[in-house]
Amino acid sequence: MNRIFYPLALLSVVSMTAVLFLGIYLHTFDIRNPKETEGRRLATMHRLSGIAAGLSVLLVESVVITYFVGTSRWTKEVAETYRLETSFIERSARLKRRTFPIAVVGMLIVVGITALGGAADPGSQFSRNLISGFGDVTWADIHLGFAVLGIAAIVVGFYLQAQHIATNQGIIQDVMTEVKRIRTERGLET
């Protein structure tokens, strides 16, 4: 799993960060002005690359969920087949239950960042200033703030998921060691 998770997670973080900096750079343009062709081109690039970065996060989270569903099921089937201690099944299931919320929150953060990006779009029906009494906060400002916090939360989530994957690999190794011991005792191939 490490060969898949780490490169995909790194790619997601790098792409989200690149999209973030592109969005920050867009503040130097007035993309509402039709004559601002460079700014409008970069805004389109920001939208499309933001969607791609969001999809990459969704891919990583989906791979993590699929991994834990599959390995949890594998642990249960092997433990039942070889009549191993139920602690293997319990540890695997507990780890899966701890990892799922992290993945779902990561997915929801991506949806939130994207929704706020849609609200920040100059072509949207929302007003330019969201809260006039607080320094004219715009949807773009809220989108930027949520993007920064969201990316940080996703990075923390990836870190926790990496720890859970390593722990799960230890459980799998323990199961394999126990299966090898049982098969050796029975004179079967290992």
Descriptive notes:
The protein is mainly α. The protein has one domain (2-185). 79% of the residues lie in helices and 3% in strands. It contains four helices and two strands. The protein has a two-stranded antiparallel ribbon. The protein starts with a helix and ends in a 5-residue tail after the last helix. The mean pLDDT is 93.
Q: Can you count the beta strands?
A: 2
Helicity level:
over 70%
C-alpha-based Rg, rounded: 23 Å
Quote the average pLDDT: 93
Tally of discrete structural domains: 1
Secondary-structure element series: HHHEEH
Low-confidence stretches: none
Class per helix and strand makeup: mainly alpha
Our count of helices gives: 4
Largest sheet: 2 strands, antiparallel
Features of this protein?
190 residues; mainly alpha; 4 helices; two-stranded antiparallel ribbon
Quick gist of this model?
The protein is an all-alpha fold and 190 residues long. Helices cover 79% and strands 3% of the residues.
